[in-house]
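Human: For the file, kindly provide a plain-text protein record giving the amino acid sequence and the backbone structure tokens, at your earliest convenience.
Assistant:
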Amino acid sequence: MLVPMPVMTARSRTEKHRASTPLELFFDLCFVVAVAQAGARLVHAVAEGHALTGIGSYAAVFFAIWWAWVNFSWFASAYDTDDPLYRVVTLVQITGVLVLAAGVPRAFDAGDWTVVVIGYVVMRLALTSQWLRAAHCTRGGERRVALRYAIGITVVQLGWIAMLLLPADSRGALTAVFVVLVLAELSVPAIAERDRSTSWHPQHISERYGLFTIIVLGETIAAATVAVQQSVYEHDALGDLLPIAAGGLLIVFSAWWIYFAVPIHDYLRGSREAFLWGYGHFLIFGSAAAIGAGIEVAVEEAVGKAHVSDTVAAAAVTIPSALFLLTVWALHARHFKRDLAEQLSLPVAALAILACTFAGGWAVFTAGLVAAAAVAVGELLSRRPAEAE
């Protein structure tokens, strides 16, 4: 006798002990494959002296990865049934991101976004089927929200497909259409939930974002380690690479420490705060992954493989590091600061890291020292007794 599929209705926002599932963790790991591809192509572009073009392509690819991940995570927080049908559709989304990852090199090198768009549309339409299932199982306002999501996502995917019909040499038109479609994607949740919010779970959402941050930082360490290993093996330049490796580790360790210094789920009380916080993670995730790419560029410059100056190579590390600190401060750290001294610690550290750009071969190491000092200062300030405020 066949067991019927569970009804897909909203889960409670006050559910106890809500945690990420093994499927969600597998989902994250597969998505990092695409992040690694984007980071590798960014390294190549910056090292060859095409930083602006590379950053633009990186931002476009990372948006596709990030937005598909965000939409899955928030849907899962509200409607995860973890039944066979739900799992199969999620695996289809994973297949889509792997297709996207396969198209990243051609998108960067030849400006051909066909495979990237195909992978992205596969992910988005798979999620649309989940929203249609939720609509089928619900009634009233909840059903209307699910249908709005399904219709909105589908319409925007038609726009992405139509974009592929534009001539490849019409860069201005392609850029304009891309921006319009990005804005359309970002507007779908606001329109769908204009009179009723989905029942996402604050602790679950904060854990999901935290876990993806950890995975991206782990990928950063892995990519930088491979770059140092290859350079030591090929160029016997351990003395030149040790300061970069040490500084890079200090930056990544500090980034982890700073991100998890506050209980952000206490801040995520409503959709307004949550949407801004969730959207802002595009910069957190993107800068975290870019730190690893920057360390690789710095390594290549140190052994003479990159066609850029030491200042440009240093900026490839210091700019995303500073952006990470500023964005983490703006999104959630500042909501838990007690006074001006605590509020200024991260912005001042970000400016100091930017100043390290001009420290030559020691830029990454000094930036790492600044990041570590920011952690130490933050800990000291937060441990002051309440009477000292």
Remarks:
- Residues 202-235 form the longest helix (34 residues).
- Residues 244 and 364 are 5 Å apart (CA to CA).
- The chain has a mean pLDDT of 90.
- DSSP finds twelve helices and no strands in the chain.
